[in-house]
Amino acid sequence: xVQLVESGGGLVQAGGSLRLSCAASGLAFSTYxxxxxxxxxxxxxxxxxxxxxxxxxxxxxxxxxxRFTISRENAKNTVYLQMSSLKPEDTAEYYCAAGYGWxxxxxxxxxxxxxxxxxxxx
Length: 122
Description:
Blueprint: E1 3-7, E2 10-13, E3 18-25, E4 33-39, E5 46-51, E6 58-60, E7 68-73, E8 78-83, E9 92-99, E10 111-112, E11 116-121
């Protein structure tokens, strides 16, 4: 059974930083593209960042480019999202996802975590 478990969310002041983690099990982690998405209250879930199976390629939403960094440790079956210079508009539930596709489309990902809440206060 595939499981993706996010952690590291919380409450932070604007300008602060957080690092999210997503621990995967039940799948050949090192062969999957991993992505992060987020959903704010009343809004659709949106793409944040993605990293290729070997970590060599990354791609970010314009809204987070230069502030967020996605990375992975295949030996630990874990993907990370380092978030810096956080803004109130980054407040959302953050989800990790695994798939064999590539890019910002949710259809490229087959497995999803339950999410972790990030709240940025002004």
